[in-house]
């Protein structure tokens, strides 16, 4: 039995679709809620879904952050973007953050069901008109990663995001809010940053970052472009 959670701001559509999907014998719709629900992440923890369908229309430039946060909370769940958005850039952001599939809302229930089952088997699916851009950008990511040799290249992409917030003078709570992570996760990343850069304080870490040319805005720009 596949446990499915639907995250969509169009609640009437989500309810209608969940009623249709409830007729699939091996599919159990454990709930649906809007992306704007302040209890969204608690709902994910409680419902323990195997697959999450996610409409990213309301997420805007935070598409990658939202997908990444859902994966942090429920690592075993496959993320299927189910949306009317046709933006290749957003599809790339979702793929970088770990979304397994991108399905248009006008797709049939049968096609969606096939994708949901495929994702549970470890498959991925992006529509042909978006797949080229996704593969091209992911290949370029690999090339850029292989060419890294600067002092900050020991950091993960999320650690660079946190460090960029520190360079901008932001406090841990603000960094956590912007990256959609907990303050404890920010503290964990901060400790890792200090250890990897071999410094003893955030001030020293910021000095190293500035010397390496890290822009205070880089983290904000990278949220949708480099998360994994």
Structure description:
The chain is an alpha/beta fold. Helix content is 53%, strand content 12%. It contains eleven helices and five strands; from the N terminus they run E-H-E-H-E-H-E-H-E-H-H-H-H-H-H-H. It has a five-stranded parallel sheet, sandwiched between helices. The two termini are 28 Å apart.
In which order are the strands of the major sheet placed?
A: 2-1-3-4-5
The count of β-strands is 5
CA radius of gyration: 19 Å
Our estimate of the beta-strand percent is 5-15%
Taking the alpha carbons of the first and last residues, their distance comes to 28 Å
Structural class: alpha/beta
Helical percent range?
40-55%
Q: Which parts are unreliable, with pLDDT below 50 for 5 consecutive residues or more?
A: 219-228
H/E topology pattern: EHEHEHEHEHHHHHHH
- Average pLDDT, rounded to a whole number, is 87
Helical stretch count? Answer: 11
Instruction: State the shape.
Output: elongated
Could you describe the largest sheet, including whether it forms a barrel?
5 strands, parallel
Secondary structure blueprint with pairings:
Blueprint: E1 2-7, H1 11-21, E2 27-33, H2 40-47, E3 51-54, H3 63-73, E4 78-83, H4 88-97, E5 101-104, H5 109-120, H6 128-147, H7 157-167, H8 172-179, H9 183-197, H10 202-211, H11 218-222
Parallel strand pairs: 1-2, 1-3, 3-4, 4-5
What attributes does this structure have?
disordered C terminus; 5-stranded parallel β-sheet; elongated; 11 helices
Quick synopsis:
The chain is of the alpha/beta class.
